[in-house]
Write a structure and sequence with these properties.
The complex is a heterodimer of chains A (409) and B (166). Chain A has 2 domains: 12-222, no CATH class; 236-392, Rhodanese-like domain (Oxidized Rhodanese, domain 1), CATH 3.40.250. In chain A, 57% of the residues lie in helices and 5% in strands. Chain A has 18 helices and 7 strands. Chain A has helices at 15-32, 38-46, 51-72, 88-105, 109-117, 121-139, 141-148, 158-162, 166-191, 204-222, 236-245, 252-260, 275-280, 297-304, 318-329, 341-351, 361-379, 381-386, and strands at residues 249-250, 267-271, 287-288, 309-313, 335-338, 387-388, 391-392. A 5-stranded parallel sheet of chain A has the order 1-5-4-2-3. Chain A has a two-stranded antiparallel sheet with strand order 6-7. In chain A, β4 (309-313), α15 (318-329) and β5 form a beta-alpha-beta unit. Chain A is elongated, with a radius of gyration of 30 Å. Chain B has 166 residues and is mainly alpha-helical. Chain B has 2 domains: 1-93, no CATH class; 94-166, no CATH class. Chain B has helices at residues 3-21, 28-42, 44-49, 51-59, 68-86, 102-122, 127-136, 140-157. In chain B, α2 packs across α5 (68-86) and α7 (127-136) packs across α8. The longest helix of chain B is centred in the last third of the chain and has 21 residues, at 102-122. Chain B is globular. The two termini of chain B are 27 Å apart. Classes of the chains: A mainly alpha (409), B mainly alpha (166).
Chain lengths: 409, 166
């Protein structure tokens, strides 16, 4: 379901309000963590105070583990999170300049604001310098641009860059952080002349990261790989009711009518046949979601993102029925199945000789519609969309991933 | 506050930022917005010619201050003030090593800020936006940035020790 705003669960007008509330928490925790004091911050580089390292890495790990956990539970769509793009050269150059800035200034931008607001005069001067630096960069942007924009690798992920599994990367990252916490504690004690702590891993200073790592290890071992959300799961009884009542069928006439009247077309056609079959021919505007992939991430994106009513089809109704069952079970709503499938559709609109001596008015009306539709599909404007060299064709529309929120610092 | 607890809480703040808005935290973005807004109102002609500013005015809604990161930073200021005030840490003060004067400290603070301003533009974010948020989503950029910042810090710390230690 998350992230809430990019997925439209929360009105984006509330965006700025949330920004402010999250900022309150951010500022409060930074100040409580001791980040308003430049001397304390600089301590991380001289070994007398490693508070920055502790807070910083615990926070990064907590968030990284939290996001993995959320994605396991289906609470957050991992692919929709903003991943800052990697420009290797610019990241290294920027990092080096910022490293100098950290040693000289004793702050980083976030902490300088925290310091400035509670009256740290050095922090206020830092903020002034910060704006000067941004202005300087802006003024010489044309000069910096080649370096700034060199080698864009996009939103790549570190475990892919290193070629390791995501969960194990986080686990190892956690172990490294834990080792760093223990080693830096010893360095800090030596430099400050405090007795070395002899109590091993269960000293209070280590307890939290230690148990965090244990928790992560357990998570890693016992959770299956990325199951989809079972959040809104439809129960079996409801499903049986719907299936027995056959309320989930869309009639071919409706689909034909809407294909012929684009302005009234509120349907999204989803083709659950294999990709090869789809490429040969499909209904106009249909998107391909092979039955095998119906529970994958692509399905979630395709269906959740659409405001249109979904109609699934296959050759007959069988595969489409199966897909419908699976998708309904997962909690997707507004999904129907094209009754009779493609075969029914083509028989009715391309092959059948319609008999007009039907008994009642409704049947006569249907028949007349089918005759007209058949004519339209075969000869009219719609013909070009459906028929090409005797074979029905369509343009294949790639499914674009929904946009994640833009981020940055 | 126990630093691990603070880190854990900070992680939860970061997590909720991702959960609600799909992106992390940031601080230098607000500084950029202030600069853009200032240049846009003081020298609008220049802002149109310079592609750094012009690209913002072309793509944004032309209101740099009505920006997610600006409101986030307003929150940071509020939260930090609240915390500092409650814990009795609010008050005018300069933190520095004992071997330098206040004037020296302030000159280096401006210089450090300046470097961070330039560096955060190259790095597409600072310690919060590029490094911390980047690491949370396991982006390669986040890890490169954090290694570059802290690696440089340790490499040069010795030469600037007078600023901070005895």
């Amino acid at each position: 379901m998350g992230p809430l705003i990019p997925q439209g669960y929360v009105n984006s007008d509330l965006n700025l309000f949330f920004a402010f509330v999250i900022g309150l928490g951010f500022g409060y925790v930074l100040e409580q963590g001791g980040f308003s004091n430049s001397k304390k911050l600089a301590g991380v580089f001289y070994g007398y105070d490693f508070v920055v390292l502790r807070v910083f890495f615990t926070a990064a790990l907590t968030a990284a583990i939290g996001l993995l956990l959320f994605s396991y539970m289906g609470l957050v769509e991992y692919d929709m999170l903003y991943v800052n793009p990697t420009f290797v050269k610019a990241a290294i150059v920027g990092g080096i300049i910022m490293g100098f800035g950290f040693i000289l200034g004793g702050y980083c931008p976030g902490t300088s604001m925290v310091g400035a607001v509670i009256g740290k005069i050095d922090a206020m001067f830092f903020v002034v310098g910060l704006m000067g630096g941004v202005f300087f960069f802006g003024s010489f942007y044309e000069t910096f641009k080649p370096l700034y924009e060199a080698d864009n690798l996009g939103g790549i992920l570190v475990y892919d860059s290193l070629g390791v599994d995501r969960d194990w990367f986080v686990f190892i990252f956690g172990l490294i952080a834990l080792a760093a916490f223990i080693i830096t504690r010893k360095i800090e004690d030596r430099i400050n002349g405090v007795e070395l702590l002899p109590k091993g891993l269960f000293h209070p200073s280590y307890r939290m990261p230690f148990f965090m790592m244990l928790f992560l290890a357990a998570l890693n071992l016992y959770l299956p790989q990325s199951p989809r959300a079972k959040w809104n799961e439809t129960d079996a009884k409801t499903l049986l009711g719907e299936a027995a009542a056959e309320v989930h069928y869309a009639m071919i006439d409706e689909v034909a009518y809407k294909l012929l009247h684009e302005s009234e077309n509120d349907l999204m056609l989803v083709d659950v046949r294999p990709a090869e079959d789809f490429q040969r021919f499909a209904l106009p505007g249909a998107k391909n979601l092979p039955l095998k992939e119906v529970l994958g991430q692509k399905a979630g994106k395709l269906l959740d993102d659409s405001n249109k009513k979904v109609v699934i089809y296959s050759y007959s109704s069988t595969d489409a029925d199966q897909a419908w069952m699976l998708l309904r079970r997962e909690g997707h709503k507004d999904i129907r199945v094209l009754k009779g499938g493609l075969n029914g559709f083509f028989t009715e609109f391309f092959v059948e000789n319609h008999q007009t001596q039907s008994r009642n008015e409704k049947e006569q009306f249907d028949t007349r519609f089918r005759e007209r539709a058949m004519k339209a599909f075969k000869t009219g404007e719609a013909a070009e969309k459906i028929i090409s060299k005797g074979k029905p064709v369509t343009t294949i529309v790639d499914i674009e991933p929904p946009k994640a929120g833009k981020g940055g610092c | 506050m126990n630093p691990y607890l603070a880190g854990f809480l900070l992680g939860l703040v970061l997590l909720s930022a991702f959960f609600i808005t799909g992106r992390g935290l940031g601080a230098s973005g607000a500084a950029k917005s202030v600069v853009i807004e200032t240049i846009g109102s003081v020298a609008p002609e220049y802002a149109k010619e310079n592609s750094f500013y012009a690209s913002f005015f072309a793509t944004g809604d032309g209101r740099p201050m009505r920006n997610w990161l600006v409101y986030l930073t307003l929150g940071v200021l509020g939260g930090a003030f609240f915390s500092g005030f409650l814990s009795g840490r609010a008050g005018f003060k300069i933190d520095k090593g004992v071997r330098i004067t206040n004037a020296t400290r302030l000159i280096f603070a401006v210089a450090g800020g300046f470097l961070f301003g330039v560096g955060s533009q190259f790095g597409r974010g600072c310690t919060s936006g590029a490094a911390l948020s980047g690491m949370a989503v396991l982006s390669t950029a986040g890890f490169i940035t954090v290694i570059a910042i802290f690696g440089t810090g340790y490499a040069i710390a010795y030469f600037f020790r007078k600023l901070w230690i005895n």
